[in-house]
Amino acid sequence: MEILVCAKRVPDTSENEIQLNGAGTDIERDDMVYSVNEPDNYAVEEALQIVARTGGNVTVVTVGGEDDEEILRREMAMGATRGVLISDDTFNGSDGRGIAAVLKAFVQTEHYDLILTGVQAEDGCAQVGGMLAAMLDYPFASLVTSIEVLEGRKLKIGREIEGGSKEINAIDLPCVLSIQTGINEPRYVGMRGIRQVASVPIPTLGASDLGVEPDAVGEVAAKARRVDYFVPPAGKGADMLAGSREEVIDKMMELLKAKGGLN
Amino acid sequence: MARIFAYIVHKSGVADDTAVELPVAARKIYPEQPCTAIVTGWGADLDQVCESLRGTYREVWKIAKEPLAYPNAELIRKALQSVVPAGSILLVPHAHFGVDLSPGLSIRMNAAYVPDVLDIEGVEGEWLKAVRQEFGGQVSTHIRCNLSTGAVLNIRPGAFRPSEAAPATGQVVDKSAEVGALTSRRRYLETIAAETGDVDITRQTVLVSIGRGIGEQENVAIAEDLAEAMGAAVSCSRPVVDAKWMDRSRQVGSSGQTVRPKVYLACGISGSFQHLAGIKGSPFIVAINKNPKAPIFRVADVGVVDDILEFLPALASKVREESCVPGKRGGGHD
Predict the structure, then answer these.
(1) Chain B residue closest to A246 (CA)?
(2) Among residues B112, B94, B82, B110, which one has the least CA distance to residue B7?
(3) Given an 8 Å threshold on Cβ–Cβ distance, is A224 in contact with B143?
(4) Do B114 and B136 contact (CB within 8 A), yes or no?
(5) What pTM does this model have?
(6) Going from the N-terminus, what domains does chain A have, and what CATH number goes with each?
(7) Which of A76, A231, B287, B311 could pair with B306 as two cysteines, CB 3.0-4.6 Å apart?
């Protein structure tokens, strides 16, 4: 099976405190630690496990700039066959629809049976996979937590729904699936693995290589545009307990007793 | 002015809570414009839902088709394309169904898409201004959304509080005939119910709940020890389950269990809206987190900025110390 995984490099929230820049136009990105979007890593692992069973190749693609190469190398160190960077100044300011249009153009220059994305990235939009599927006229499923390859170019997939229940569907290939965290246990990538792929060339494709129509991408085409960032109003907020740890614990004991927290 | 529609999620003949929240969002777009409900499904359940909405909506569009008996987003997307006029604004709850339906629907309708909308600040010309969050709620953003070719807006459940709107006496309009044959390359097979674990966290009055901040599997014992001292049970947020440190039956959140404790200790939990959606009944929430900016502090009653790996053992020994009555081992009056 030929599998494409769409990945994104994002600020690592476990390593960074997210703060606004002075103007409120962006978050403070200086000295920020970036990593591959966590759900995308699960998508790559799932793709690797599928080709281990069925044969085929895993391609990882990202739309961005040269800094984003590092996540392609990381996923290649996991075992992806190749990485592709799609980069062009005309893509700047694209909304989810613009990014999906770029990916659609790329998919149409190649052949894939299955396209995976992570369920969502740091912006919580969870949109590119579903948009890409609609543009390609492929079936789509989100929040996928299990994949089984069936005969006759079909998959049996599980989707996460409310209350921890799982919805089972059959879906025809080619299709697009957004992968939920927890579907597998992504393999560890050591420094040695990264070094082994450090000099593998990564092709960079631009708008003209893919035949992306200029009016489908960039800020001009964006129907949804981020205006600014701001810190949400505090609201009531928690009553913060201050003092030494012992003092804090004494106060908390009183509160827990009063609220029925000690049985 | 574009028409506004609200897609109604329902189950077993009962409309989701969002059915009364979407009209509130609609009024923030065009205050004078009535919002029309769209309900898809089949059989008596569908009729019951449509009937129940007549007090909230002036018009309820019903699409009754046998293949829609189970809400398969691939089929519903096609049905909506057939009935929703070009240029309309469609509101959809941002949960597992909306995430499945809406991105693709916005492409099919050539409409703008804004996911997970928390607030709407009005319309200027053809631009709507909406509020979203990024980075798990650590920062908010304003989004400008172009309405000129219509829009699909996914609305966060619970973000728009239902108001005391004048009761409507709506009529149900059957639009089924406008929808052609429905087939899909994705077919629903079955639903597998959540596994039940050794402890039913939905029945606990006190929960010590742990998140990513617990760090590693060995540290789960720290939370278990505190829970034992307090006569509580341990629950967790999604990352703990993803890492396989705790069983899925212990997960609190929209993709896990809904709990109704009296006291909830959120330990090393950042407080994503998916997690908070699983906490009902307004418990007393105590948040302990190293990050003073963690979103959980916005919803907790009491907060402590500290390392849970040191704070929880200290709290556990204090609880044991105070409950240790002479002649009685351990505390507990139960």
Answers:
(1) B314
(2) B94
(3) yes
(4) no
(5) 0.92
(6) 2-221 (3.40.50.620)
(7) B311
Residues A234 and B298 sit within 8 Å (Cβ to Cβ)? yes
Residue of B100, B189, B242 lying closest to A181 (CB–CB): B242
pLDDT of B31 higher than 90 = yes
Note which residues in 119-158 of chain A have CB less than 8 A from chain B: 119, 122-131, 133-135, 138-143, 156, 158
Q: Above pLDDT 70, what percent of chain A?
A: 99
**DSSP at A205:** E
In B95-242, beta strands by DSSP E: 112-117, 119-124, 127-134, 139-146, 151-155, 171-174, 186-192, 206-210, 233-236
Instruction: Find, in chain B, the residue whose alpha carbon is nearest to that of A162.
Output: B255
Across chain A, where does the E strand assignment appear? 2-6, 9-11, 34-36, 57-63, 82-86, 114-118, 140-150, 154-160, 166-172, 175-179, 204-205, 224-230, 239-240
* B51-68 mean pLDDT: 96
- A-chain residues near B232 (CB < 8 A): 261, 263
On whether any CB of chain B is under 8 Å from the CB of A220, the answer is no
Q: Which of A8, A45, A113, A161 to mutate to test the interface with B (most CBs of B within 10 A)?
A: A161
In chain B, the domains with their CATH numbers are 4-178 (3.40.50.620), 201-323 (3.40.50.1220)
Q: How near does any CA of chain A get to the CA of B167, in Å? A: 30
Measuring CA to CA, how many Å separate B285 from each of B115, B277, B296, B299? 28, 14, 9, 8
Alpha-carbon gap, residue A13 to A219, rounded angstroms: 27
Q: Which amino acid is at B238?
A: R
> For testing the chain A interface, which of B108, B116, B138 should be mutated: the one with the most A CBs within 10 Å?
B138
- Cα–Cα distance between B18 and B158 in angstroms, integer? 7
Q: What are phi and psi of A92, to 5 degrees?
A: -60, 135
Please give the DSSP secondary-structure letter assigned to residue B268.
S
If you average pLDDT over residues B221-248, what whole number do you get?
A: 95
Report CB contact under 8 Å: A134, B286. no
Q: Does ipTM exceed 0.90?
A: yes
Angle at B134 between CA A145 and CA A102, to 5 degrees: 70
Which of B286, B300, B314 comes nearest A245 by C-beta? Answer: B314
Q: What is the pLDDT of residue B334?
A: 45
Distance CA A63, CA A85 (A): 6
Select from B115, B190, B306 the Cβ nearest to the Cβ of A126: B115
Q: Using omega within 30 degrees of 0 as the cis cutoff, is the peptide bond preceding A174 cis?
A: yes
Q: Is B270 exposed, middle or buried (CB count within 10 Å of its CB: 0-12, 13-18, 19+)?
A: buried
Partners of residue B12 on adjacent β-strands: none
Query: What pLDDT score does A13 carry?
Result: 78
